[in-house]
Amino acid sequence: MRTIALDGAKNLVERSAPDPTAGPGEVCIRVNTVGICGSDIEYYLHNRIGSFIPRGPLVLGHELSGQVVAVGSPVDPSSSSTVPGSGGHGVVVGSRVAIDPSMPCRVCAYCRAGRHNLCTNLKFIGTAATVPHLAGGFAGYVVVPRANCFLMPDDISWGEGACLEPVSVAVHAAVRAGSVAGRRVLVSGGGTIGQFVALVARAFGAAVVAVSDPQQHRREFAVSQGGDFGIDPTQPDDMARVREQTGGFDLVFEASGAAPAVRANLELVNRGGTIVQIGSIAGDVELPLNLVMSKELSIVGSFRYADVYPTSMNLLASRRVDVRPLISATYRFADTPAAFALAAERGNAIKIQVEHDG
Ligand SMILES: [Zn+2]
Ligand SMILES: [Zn+2]
Description:
The protein is α/β, with parallel strands linked by helices.
């Protein structure tokens, strides 16, 4: 099969690799569409994320949809139903599926507590976190457990299916918030994840959804997708005006990863409010933590997702979360390097995807 692998920073090379085969309980999927995630861009730019450094060429891509071409045997049809929240139901050769790229061990203490994203033995396709690296979606085929596959309704496009993973990141953040319904929500940061979170917050019944971002096009985009306010965080008057109009914010999703925003959230969130940290921050940040005490704030982290894929697929399938406008550009497989170059500019594009040929 054809793959496009990262072989050093900004160096994507086309290589051929043996077609993978599905083992017991696994399926082989012909990849149709794969999205470029912020973490893929980090690998692309720096050939590393934190302590994860690829040991040799790395096939990126963990946001993907495709068609099942082989089902490994033996597959016990009832096995997936014993794992709460997992997929695999009705998946046969020919099924159109979107996948969960994470493979928790299902036996460690965290897995047994239902917190699969915190698994100490987690495998994940398309990253250097797993050794040996498991190839991701910038390849003709991927092999994943059948329980990681979620059927796509016929009228949901491959591109929408490939958004199931980032939608799940946003849904998990909403779950971590405790409740969203009726709360006044600020999404701090209007990048890709911030835009997905804003859509999900609306779907979860937020009373107000505001998105703050220094970039005007991101604010305007959020409002065009149903957000109530776009706020320029560099203009204190802008934030003050919206807070006065809404009565402030009870819940803040921090999706900017920007130190000034992280600090400002503690000051602007209402007393008794909740801050969900989703953005990853480069370096340490000094924070006025006395505010956590005096305002009785709750700060919770949100990392990837656990058991939210069925919910995410329901939201996608009903288009209660309509991701179609977020797909900014779709490139052909051979043009993957151009797709990464555009994504790395972090300009007006929200989500860039690559479609395999044929
Ligand atoms: Zn990702
Ligand atoms: Zn585990």
